[in-house]
Amino acid sequence: MDNETLEELLSAVRRFVDRRLVPLEAQVDNDDEVPADVVDEMRTLGLFGLTIPEEYGGLGLTMVEEVRVAMELGRTSPAFRSVFGTNVGIGSQGIVIDGTDAQKQAWLPRMARGEVIASFCLTEADAGSDAAPLRTRAHRRDDHYVLEGTKRYITNAPRAGAFTVMARTADTERPADGITAFIVDAATPGIRLGRPEKKMGQRGAHICDVVFDGCEVPADAVIGGVEGRGFRTAMKVIDRGRLSIAAVCVGSASRLVQEMRRYALERRQFGRPIAEFQLVQAMLADSETERRAAQALVLEAARKRDAGARVTQDAAMAKYFASEMVGRVADRAVQLFGGAGYVADYGIERFYRDVRLFRIYEGTSQIQQLVIARELLAGDAG
């Protein structure tokens, strides 16, 4: 995408966030639902196809372009981005990277248009950060497979039209080698959904269990057409997903710093704005410094990925630092707002709840630490 077109896209997303999404934040939190007309506007803007190649109807953004858009979207409730986030990330990218031509033609254009919402089914009761205990199995029977098992905390499952399912097809010495990825139509018999979970934050973004009970899928549902490559497919997708989430964290921190600055200038104590008090200034300074550091880390990692470099460590560092950073910024925002930060009417407590999840999904902070250390010990510090 040329620079002029990118700037037009960023301006359109910025206006959409400021004029349409921000005013709806409290409503979405109260109703636990993103309005249908807003979802339609997301489709019109092309948000469902940000990372899907142009030949399949998407925008085909580079990593740098994607994180810049994500930073704009991060300035509002994460629930809005969650509507199309799985189409942009883990729901579609496995097909983009490893899918057969037929799978790409069948699924990607509909995902790009937002006609099909994709969900990624990996996590189970005893499998998540560690995929080895994964128990969902796919048994081969002639020209099809039978899926049996339960997936947990699956984002967008209640509205999904397709599931990317990680299932065990073989018991191997290395457990990850026995995992296969399937693209499964959500209307397939043998699939049922659990009740939507009540969550700490990000209301309007829905998760639930997905149960596969004798679910028969054709053999050509195996992503890439080869068994045992599911875990590798997931790992190829994860770096991009981590950078995207890190960028959303930067956007959320930008919004919080903006709100902190505004309130510090308006709120008066002891006859003057609290912005004049040095300890308040320290909270602002720490928050903006950390936000900019995270932004620089994300953009640098994105540039390296676009250049073809391996960015497993860079993506882990960006996601780790940015998600922890926005948690600290949100905590300072509550402190700076005082009682107003704790009361729901001002929206700060909602951000405090919403950003907490960033330290958990796409790999917990502890998993990121392990990845960073592993990469460091295996190579050099540069």
Could you characterize the architecture of this molecule?
- The chain has 3 domains: 3-113, Acyl-CoA dehydrogenase/oxidase, N-terminal domain (Butyryl-Coa Dehydrogenase, subunit A, domain 1, Orthogonal Bundle), CATH 1.10.540.10; 118-228, Butyryl-CoA Dehydrogenase, subunit A, domain 2, CATH 2.40.110; 232-378, Butyryl-CoA Dehydrogenase, subunit A, domain 3.
- By secondary structure, the protein is of the alpha+beta class.
- Strands 2-3-7-6 form a 4-stranded antiparallel sheet, with no helix packed on it. Strands 1-4-5 form a 3-stranded mixed sheet.
- The model has no long low-confidence stretch (mean pLDDT 94).
- The chain contains 13 helices and 9 strands.
- It has helices spanning 3-21, 25-31, 36-45, 63-73, 78-88, 90-98, 101-113, 230-266, 278-306, 312-337, 339-342, 348-354, 365-378; strands spanning 118-121, 137-141, 144-155, 162-168, 179-185, 191-193, 207-218, 268-269, 272-273.
Task: Give helix % range.
Answer: 40-55%
Q: What's the N-to-C terminus distance?
A: 31 Å
The CATH topology of the largest domain turns out to be: Butyryl-CoA Dehydrogenase, subunit A, domain 3
**What's the helix count?**
13
Structural class: alpha+beta
Q: Helix-strand pattern, N to C?
A: HHHHHHHEEEEEEEHEEHHHHH
Spatial shape: globular
Number of strands: 9
